Records
---
Amino acid sequence: MANQDWIEIGTLDDIPQMGARVIETKNGDIAVFRTADDQVFALRDECPHKQGPLSQGIVYGNKVTCPLHDWKINLDTGLAVAPDEGCAASYPVKNDNGKIMLLLTANS
């Protein structure tokens, strides 16, 4: 991935710990999450179950709970936690010395 593929979306401080910030793109909203230990993840802001806004869910560990029906989504992969099944698209994101960089190509 070339450097020009990554876009700067803000700083780590722009994302609340154990919370999310929404980035609007031409392909839909992306939720960028920050965990209690400052890891950063990016998922399409849509639960695979009923399309609830994951950005409004509760972040704990490396998971987020959908605010509509309590589905738990793994922030690393976008996969629903068993027994639920489904996947929210995940996006590469990195912390570059406090600057948060996002790649708008979803992971497979």
Note: Strands lie at 6-11, 19-25, 28-34, 40-44, 58-60, 63-65, 72-74, 90-91, 93-96, 99-103.
---
Amino acid sequence: MQQVTLPKEVVYLPFEDGPFRMAMGLVACPEAGWIEIDEHYPAEMAGRRRLLAERHADVVAACPGSEAARAEVLAMLAAHLPAQFPDWFRREGSVLRNALTGEAFDLDAPGEDPLEVAARLVQEDLCIIRPAEGGPVLEAAVVCAPTRWRVSEKIGRPLMQVHAAVPFYGERLGSPVDRFMAQIKAGRVAMRVNWSVVDNPALFQLSGKHRGELDPSFTAENAGERLYLRTERQTFRRLPQSGAVLFTIHVHSYPLTRIAALPGVAARLAGAVRALPEEMGRYKSLPVYREALLGWLDAAARLAPAA
């Protein structure tokens, strides 16, 4: 296995101190920036291998008829990774070699699910969304870092149903998302980042939404040590052959103490938390520790350097 110094993890801060706005927040992403590889790659890939071996039904799901799109995802990554990271990935005929893990994958090997092979190459979770008359449908997915949801419960459903529990999604985002999925052009990559504050740093979290009961063990003194900013860097791109959309999710989990030390960030996050509508706060389980979180952030903001 190759010993290398990998890039530092990017810190995403996708929140503002201002009125709550629910929007897609898409920006263009260059091809070179589509897939992230950072310092956590070795540990995260080991975790993904364990989940695929031991919790397969919790992380993998696919609809019949998705085989071509799944194969297309692997082919796309098998071309992209050696082109963008030639020191770490190399093609030798049908074999793709990963110098970071020491693994080699025969891309033509029968019996392998190509989407699972793809998921063993990158830190991103991979979801395939198929256009359909009733709205785009989640057709196949490997999700090793779910933010409190189960892929087995969402597979085969239109996105409007997938997000049914998200406050305001139906009236504010459902139609724009469906239109975007229908219109995105092959060759274009779009990106967005969302955020939440959680009490568990683990990437793999199947449950925990809609918790509403205050936990008095969280205090303004200890919240910074016990809470984490969790972000999802999401990308979207059309698969040109199948016509499906590949949706990737790279989850980052930062200790609150780390991000609050950055200039102006504690005050910004406190403002964003205060601006969340009550329904959205409940969805994110904030009532469990909201007051402790705000007390800690306000104190951190007084100590941190200004932005």
Note: The chain has a mean pLDDT of 95.
